[in-house]
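User: I'll paste a sequence; please echo it back and then give the predicted structure.

Assistant: Echoing your sequence first, then the prediction.
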Amino acid sequence: MVIDLSFESTKTHQRLLSELDLSHLTATQKASFIGRLESGFEPLFTQLYPLYGNCFDLYYHLKVLLQSFADFQKKKRPVQIKDNSEFWFESNKNVGIAVYVDLLADDLGSLIDKIPYFESLGINYLHLMPLYSAPEGNSDGGYAISDYRTVSPNLGTNKDLKDLASALHKKSIRMVLDFVFNHTSDEHRWAEAAKQGDKEFQGYYYFMDEQEASEYNQTVREIFPQIRRGSFTHYPELNSHVWTTFNSFQWDLNYSNPAVFVAVVEEMLHLILNGCDVLRLDALAFVWKEKGTVCENLPKAHNLIKAFKACLDIAAPKVVFKSEAIVHPDEVNKYIGADECTLSYNPLMMALLWESLATRQTQLLYQSLERSFQIPEHTTWINYIRCHDDIGWLWDDAISDRLGINGYGHRHFLNQFYTGQFEGAFAAGVPFQENPVNGDCRVCGTLASLAGVEKAVAQNDPVLLDHAIKRIRVLNGINFSMPGIPLLYQGDDLGVLNNDDYLADPAKEEDSRWVHRKKLTGKDFALAEDPTTPQGQIAKLIRDMIQIRKGNTIFAAQEFELITLNSGHLFAFKRRSANKTLVVVANMSEHLIQLTAPLSEHLGQDSAYNLLSNENIDLLALEKIQPLDILWLTNAE
């Protein structure tokens, strides 16, 4: 029998509404909530039914969920941001930075003192890396959460976080928090109850015998093979294996249990009460499991995320989701949409910009973006060059095959190149999680070290240093001019180099990502203020680009087109608004590149204004692109 979901949704909505306690809401709150519930219940029901339609207690869980939404309306949140525009994320004013609270400041209170720095830099989107209670020692950088409702004591209190949110909002800076919903730490109260034999909470996770775990391991991929083989951890005292995709202390949540969905939504609402404007969905590709599959990017994962988004639309419609899907490009795009994730990291562009710098060729970048860059209207990429994580080379092998590039061999080359093991390589990166079976690994390092500053300084070579700083200029020049929100990573705005202090810490020594998670000091800021240092040059070029971007509405243009020029060393694109055009041209090589046709054909006029050099240019006379140069060309002033 075919189920009429629309009819069943309407019937269920009416029954549930009659059973909800809304007596504590004001007339305005009640009317607003009922209106959102009326429009949002069917999208929620439609996504939950494929997941839990066979659960006899689904109606009960829906009632608990809706009552949580109603109760949420009465709870006080920090001062809200003044900008209420629905599509705020499309503005050219947006520039973000991701920081660890205790690596940029000491705690949440002292981070408030950094707001003037964010303002001077031009930041209005601040992503705070995980800051909730986590296990002592190794906690996967805070991504093993022991309590979503308690700020880690070394960072402050929940009140400190709310005070920070209020202070940021008063300066029109949005606050971004992580929503780590694939797993909890094994110290979370749910996991502790499960360890004690509580059947209800054992149902929150995946407990299974060795044979069943082995069956799953046949098809799932290993994420941290240097730490643990397979995706399960055996607990002899429980006579069971527990699903742990990442680390043994991170227990995967079992979303086939509707009680888990409801419980995690309630944790999500608590995060929102602390004042966040964006929730980053961590590891969202892994949230749904089915035997005989890779347990990544499954269709029901999308049902689940759309259900979470429907909850947002009913309870807290101003908050948006950001997707963290570091997977195949075709799969990344599937998470982006008005009914799923409004914002999404752009890992493909990040990885292929580094690939282009290593090869000095842009064909793989062009063809990959041509296929994967376009996303639905009123959604936006989060473009970045570096982040807290490693670099993985996740392009579509079908595209590299067409270009005559062997995917396996090319990834091996890039790993060798960026870890300094390839002769002539400029980079000083560090390998991460090398797989002993297939040799696969990823790369860690700061922007400056990967771009060549570290090696150039060590060799006291001014030519290499000049090239390194120009690479950083090219990368940022592309990042700040592509459609989307450009996101800096802490320290890259200061030109910091790799730091190996983590090797002396037993809790961090096996995780090379800490090489680019440096505690920033007064010296780092002082170096960045000195124009005679590499750090000072890097800091200035980044500040200059941010100010140009924020001062020109062409960087908000939604019309985008890749431009193919005559050289495989060049990368170019065009953005258009009603009366403005921006043409960006980047030379990814250390060589002078001759143009065979004038750029005027792309701008529609013979002269242009270069926003980066602040000068008018005769496009008919522009015959060469300088080594490692980037042009931001717009209509002549």
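The mean pLDDT is 96. The longest strand covers residues 570-576.
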